[in-house]
Amino acid sequence: MAEPQSRQYATEEEAQDLQPVADPASRVAETGTSILNPAAPAFVPPQHGLPLQAPQGFVAHDPAPGFNQLPAPGFRYPPPPPLAILLLLLAYNPLGEAPTYLGCRFTNRLQPHSSVPSPTPLLSGKKTLNVESPSFTPSTLQSNKKSTFSTQAASAAPFTPRGPGGNSASQTSQQNMDAPVFNPSNIREFQPQPQNYDLGSTGSPNASTHDAGYSLDHFNMAPLTQALAPPVPFNPYAVNDHSGIPNQGATYFQSQFPSALSPPQYHLYAPIGPYREDLMPYQRVTHDFFMSERLRDELQKKSHATLQTMPNSPLPQLEKYHSLFPLDTSNRKNTAVFGYTSWVYKAVSSKDGKYYCLRRLEGFRLTNEHAIHAAREWKKVLNANVVTFHEAFTTRVFGDSSLIFCHDYHPLALTLYEHHFSPQQGGRGRGPTVVPENILWSYICQISNALRAIHHAKLAARCLDMTKIIITDKNRIRLGATSILDVVQFESSQQRPLADIQQDDLIQFGRLILSLATLTQPHNLNNIPQLLDTLPMKYSAGLRDAVSWLISPPRPGENAKHIDTFLANISQHLVTFADVALRADDSLTSELSRELENGRLVRLLCKLNTITERGDHAGDSAWSEHGERYPLKLFRDYVFHQVDESGRPVLELGHMIRCLNKLDAAADDRVTLVSRDEQTVFVVSYKDLKVMVDRAFNELVKRTKQAQTSPAAVNMMPGL
Ligand SMILES: Nc1ncnc2c1ncn2[C@@H]1O[C@H](COP(=O)(O)OP(=O)(O)OP(=O)(O)O)[C@@H](O)[C@H]1O
Prior knowledge:
The protein is α+β, with helices and mostly antiparallel strands. The chain is built from 26 helices and 10 strands. Strand 9 and strand 10 form a beta hairpin. The relative contact order is 0.06. Pfam families: Pan3_CK. It is found in: Cytoplasm. This is PAN2-PAN3 deadenylation complex subunit PAN3.
């Protein structure tokens, strides 16, 4: 705590400048610390025989340089560091009452030579504080400190906290006048007892000590407090002007913050985690402030694929769908799955303008009306791993009798077969590559989820073919082509119990995983036991058991297998999968948050651009050039058309976004707008600019509403 006294300074000024903490406030704070710490020496007496004339505002026990000497003329104590104030408050706030931080007491205390008279007689002259005061010896302090300070507590003057309404100044004065000559032996050592600090609601200065639930004996250190205090003593009990502030220690800190939260700063971005690994500033690029490049690229491509059209398409228009676009990349006619050649198209609905996937079964003749109604049951299956079915109908627009199934369209989807077996995709021309076990488990979990939804809807998938399961995102699969076999095989499936068909689903499921795990083409899955035996060479025994359970039919006497039983057996993999999915969800939310404000800024830009440079409005050809519109034009220049000293364009995206955000948030910051000829200068706040934007835009809206000529403009208005 103390600076070595042997420290030498070149000049007196330097000594003053370099004085360590000669500040009474911080000294008091340090003293306070030592008081609170019973192990620390609480008092260091002077070692010389000179009578000590304690200067005003100087702490008598201060062992720091300057303790034995008066401060040089002109010495000014530096203001107390905030930490010192905090410690002071903690040390001197045993009742937990909140002192006034900005009150004049601190100010006075920081001006030891001020003309403010000290109301503390104990400190004001040798009459009260004198080194000849008896009975303190440091050796005693070191060897038997406790007994020195704690034996005479009984004789200590009782402490009387001042009530808010009382004449506190006179009371203090009277109390101090009555106090005996300073005698440290009369002082009882402070024993912090934190459990007594819980004052509850009765801990106000007005409350009696009994009511308060603690003993004020612990605070019977008024003489010491006053002896160590600066000329204007700090007395937290005198603070009685905190109306509404509960008298608890913690409330002091609470009072530093406004109780009501400030409104959020809408012009600031608040990134939401999880974050990318730390990047050095030079590694950051503009895209770091927005959605990741990978995701943007992916979405961009999907959007492009969705909007892709075929000029001069030979494909016909359907009654309810138009702009058909073929999704089959192979031209082969395959009848293996449905018994009919099928074609897949992307199409736009004439009803809602959205994109759908149409699957056409070529040459299908509907013989039973009920068959097509069977497909309707699939409308109730809404599952993340099933492509949603919308409708089925027949048509002759293709020149034959075709059956059409309409499902959700997932741009850039690939079938599982294309992904893992096609040379162009998974194998990258080198043949199929081993599918990692975690991906296989992910597929197992997702297909189980789909089957559970389907079976619980009293339906069966019937078609778990690798060419009819699509991958719509990374490792994200969905059962497609649902409902088709319900119609096509309507007659035959009427004769089979649903449980049997569901049992087939499980077997097909097992074969699918086995095919992927062994990279065997589905039509080559002949020797299943042998293939199962090869599984443990690449995968865990658990995977082998799961596949084997699915493929093998129930033994005689056993109940039929059920997807729920399977799900129960793979529960730990389901949990892992859920965790992966949730983390992916977090990361997407984080990506989304980066784009949070973009829509807002685009709307603002649209507004701004409807106003600036407008050729003619209400017969006024210069409408956008004068009045409130003119500063907006200059603001547009300020944001987008800035040049540097050499006249080169400034293209700082941060500047543009910052300005637009401030405008949108109507910030109080002001901006200087200069006309291009430098003859006009406006100093205007963003708040004012926002008002101008709104007024000018509303003027346009009003006129548009009157005329009702432009549906486009009317459509734009609600969004803005
Ligand atoms: N709902 C859908 N949304 C978007 N694309 C789809 C959808 N369903 C299928 N596709 C895509 O259409 C293409 C053709 O699908 P299809 O089922 O005909 O596969 P295939 O391998 O050609 O099978 P097949 O040999 O039986 O014709 C595939 O690339 C598939 O990813």
